[in-house]
Each structure stands twice: as structure tokens, then as C-alpha cells.
Structure prediction request, 508 residues.
Amino acid sequence: MPRYCITIEYDGTPFVGWQVQADGETVQGSLVRAIEAFCGVAVQVRGAGRTDAGVHARGQVAHFDLSRDWDPFRVAEAVNFHLRPSPIAVIGCRVVPDAFDARFSAIRRHYLYRILPRRAPAVLEANRVWRVSQALDHTAMDEAAQVLVGQHDFTTFRAAGCQAKSPIKTLDRLAVIARDGEIHVAATARSFLHNQVRSMVGCLKAVGEGKWTCSDLIAARDACDRSACAAVAPAAGLYLTQVDYPDAATERVT
Amino acid sequence: MPRYCITIEYDGTPFVGWQVQADGETVQGSLVRAIEAFCGVAVQVRGAGRTDAGVHARGQVAHFDLSRDWDPFRVAEAVNFHLRPSPIAVIGCRVVPDAFDARFSAIRRHYLYRILPRRAPAVLEANRVWRVSQALDHTAMDEAAQVLVGQHDFTTFRAAGCQAKSPIKTLDRLAVIARDGEIHVAATARSFLHNQVRSMVGCLKAVGEGKWTCSDLIAARDACDRSACAAVAPAAGLYLTQVDYPDAATERVT
Prediction:
């Protein structure tokens, strides 16, 4: 039973999220169907991050076991064939050790959030960015972002339904960068609470508009109270861009 | 009758092109309807470049006359309101001298062509790039591109139906750049022949794959024969990014 690790890109717009649910199309469900159509037997697919409805991925990672030794290139080609016309693509595929787990072996997750600050609606980037009418001070946003880096109780930035055991997380990086007329927020951590990136971006937008100061963000963080959070940023601007693993987890001993 | 100059972004996918035609939705037609819905009288809208079906714009320019002096900000807001849900957005609006003509006053047009070289289908960038299965040597493409820069007879790179009086054009810039896993071809000239950018990109792709050498591209250019052109690149990867005007054409004497 060789274990395969795939890297996946998807447009989250038509999905109710990553995880299989009672109702609605999911990314996980679409992958399971495509893999089963190719190999003819039931498979389980496990992802590194359970992205919400409308959230995109450029580098989601998942694993599954096949009953025989297929060439990884053939697996990727066949799964992509059966995924059509769903907006999901396998962009990488390799055989990994049996102990590899896309979720539990991950040591870092990277997210990108794209904001388009302009009056006109987003058309070329519809469903790909958060279009905000106000000009935003990205330098002030980046300065403020640094108060969230490090180990904190992120209760303020955590969705009501979050199932994590602890609200204490270590944020490795939170950077706000101006690029091609957009504002990009890049976030890196071992793991995130449910809605944490979108909650942090919502607060940073308040800073960028001049509604919040850096002190307001510190106060919101220290309140450890969901009601201290600014309006949560919409799903469409968020991308799971990369998941990191230790070399030992992915290198197959042959 | 003040004259307004607007800068427009659009997703070309659902349109049969810029120019109003007997059948099918056009960008020009959608703009005319939106402006008329706002001002209540008939208008004519003239664009700088007549983009083909499926070709996008980040910086198309057009002009029209209104019967009274509206604030340009209000004009942009109102036209954007009436354009919905068409994927067209007015991203800039100003009053210009009566002699301004979006097409004839233009001194330079800039196009971008995006190629995504990978096996997996384009999903996040579906209808936004040309996905090619082969790896492409962008350095070889950029070197070869330079043989098209300057004044040449571009008959090889001209669509059969092209209405330009002469096939002789001066190409100011043709640069091939690797960016974020894509290959971008940037082209600048006072004006282009019909399908010229897509024809040149089709030939550069042949160079990138190693099917054509630089000498093959020179031979194709010098043949001045449409049948010497490689397969024309598809519309979806092409963007009209910017149109330049002399300051005197757009500065209003008040």
C-alpha cells in the first residue's frame, strides 16, 4: 500500500469547503471521487488544512494510499483527468513513507491574503481578492502586524466553532506588503486557529484605514475576547500557499 | 459637451470582443448601455484598442461626450453601478480636451501575454493564461524576441482579416520574463496589426520548446508570409495593460 502525497491548487469559490460534509460539493469529496474513478477502489484523502468555503489553495497538501505501485506522474495525470471540470488541479505528486501524515507531519503552514484597495469592483480578480473602497496605509498595517507575531492567546481571533484544544499559538510571521496595486498579508505558523488569518486581516484593515491604532490592536489581542475582533475578512481573499514538512517525513527509504 | 476619458479593466471571457457587432455581447456595447442608463441620452464610446473575443484589459482607454458637466468621480461610480454584473470596471475617469481621441491620440500601447508552463490544468488562473504542457526556455525566448524589435514588415504576424493600411510597424519592446512560475511576454508599440502579439507569442513558444531557433524566427519574419507563422497563441492569455498619450492630449485647459 504505497502512500502518495499530492500538492493541490484549487479555486475555493464553488465549494462549501475542504472537508466532506452532508450537503454541498467539497474539495476533499471531489478528490476522493477522482482518485476512486482512476484506481477503482475506495480511498481516504487527508489534507493538511481544512480550508473554509470560498478559500483557495495554491499549495494544499494531502495524502492517500493506493493498493498498487503507480508511477506518481501517472497518478497526477489520471487524477487531473477525472477531476475535470472541477477547479482543482494536482500540481505535484510523490511517494512518501507510510508514517507521513499530511496534517500531523506538517511543521509550518503559509497563507496569503490579497486585498485590492479601490473604488471600482474587482472584475479580473473577482472572487480572488477582498476589494475595499478605502485607501489603506500598508506601512501602518505592517508595523501593527508585528504585535501579533510570537506566542499569544489568540482567542480574539478565533471563530466560535473552533475545535482546537488551546487558543495559544505561535505566529512565526505576519507581513504586510504592497504589490501591483494590491496589499498582501503573508502569515506563517505551525498551525492556525479556525478563522485566525481572516480575523487578523480584518483587524489590520481597521489599522490601515486609520480606525485602529497599534494600541487598539494590542488591546484587542490582550482582551482574549471574540467580541474585541474587527469584522472578519471575507473568504475569497485567502490562499493556503504552502505547507512545510521535515525532510525525514517525505523522503522515502528505498 | 465635455469629453470624458475612462480607463477600463475587463475580463474578456464572456465577450465576442471590444467592438459592437451584429451578434453577441461586446465590451463597447455594455459600456454604451451603462453610460446611457446613467445620463439618459445616446452616447458614442470609442476605445484605444479593439481587443478580440476572450482578450482582457487592465488599462483599456475610451472616450465619450456627455451633454452636461458631471464630476468625473460621479461618472465612474454611476457607470460602474450600471455595468453590473458585467465583468467590466471603470478604474479611472477624467475630463479631457475636445480634441482627445482614445484611438488616434494614443502614442503607445502596452500588452502583456501570460503563459503558465505546467502539466496540470490552470484552475485559479483558468481563462487568464495560456497553459502549455512543455517547459519553456524563457532566456532563449527573450533573446529571439529581440529580432522582432524595431521597424519590420510584420505580414507573417498579421491576421488574414487585418484592416491596417500597411504591414510595416515599429515594435518598441518585446521582453520575455519569468515571474511566479509563469512566463510573461511584454510588448510595446505605437500600434499593432490584428493578432500581432498572439502571433509573435506563438512563434516565441516554438523557440521556448526548442522547436525553432533564433534563425527560424528571423526566416519567418523575413518570409513576410502568414503561412510562415507558428500556431497563434490563444486569446485568454492576452491583456491590454496600458495606453499612453502625450500630456497635451489629456491636459484640459480651464
Q: What stands out?
A: Chain B is about 25% helix and 30% strand. The beta strands of chain B are 3-10, 46-47, 56-65, 88-96, 108-117, 130-132, 150-153, 168-179, 182-189, 238-244. Residues 27-39 of chain B form the longest helix (13 residues).
